[in-house]
C-alpha cells in the first residue's frame, strides 16, 4: 500500500468510474506458486457488478484456477469488451459467452476477484 492506504497493484487492475477507492478488504487468502493471494468469491453477479467489486478492492477478476483451485462458470475478462462477456466452462478448458446488444446487461455468473499481496 502507498502512503494514502491504496494498493499499488503489480498488474493493471480493474478500474471503474463508479469506484472512489481501491482498498476494500477481501475475506480469503491462499499461498499458491510462491505468491500470497487475497481474494473473495462474491457468488453470482452481473459482469458490471463483478468488475466494480474488483475495482473497489484494487483487484482483478480471476478464476479459481488462478489460485490452484477448480470451478466453472466464473467470469473472465473478455478479449473484446463491447457488450460481450465470457466465463469459464468444462473444468477450466472452455468458455461460454454472452453477446448482448447495446445497453443490455450480462447474464449472472460467479464472481471471483483477487490480487497478489506482497
Structure write-up:
This protein is mostly beta strands. It has one domain (28-116). Helices cover 8% and strands 36% of the residues. It contains one helix and seven strands; from the N terminus they run ββαβββββ. It has one helix spanning 47-56; strands at residues 28-32, 35-46, 60-61, 75-76, 84-89, 94-99, 108-116. A four-stranded antiparallel β-sheet has the order 1-2-7-3, with helices on one face. The longest helix is centred in the middle third of the chain and has 10 residues, at 47-56.
Share of residues in strands: 35-45%
Structural class: mainly beta
- What count of structural domains? 1
Principal-axes shape call:
globular
Instruction: Characterize the main sheet.
Output: 4 strands, antiparallel
Strand order of the largest sheet: 1-2-7-3
Distance between the termini: 10 Å
Pattern of helices and strands: EEHEEEEE
Radius of gyration: 14 Å
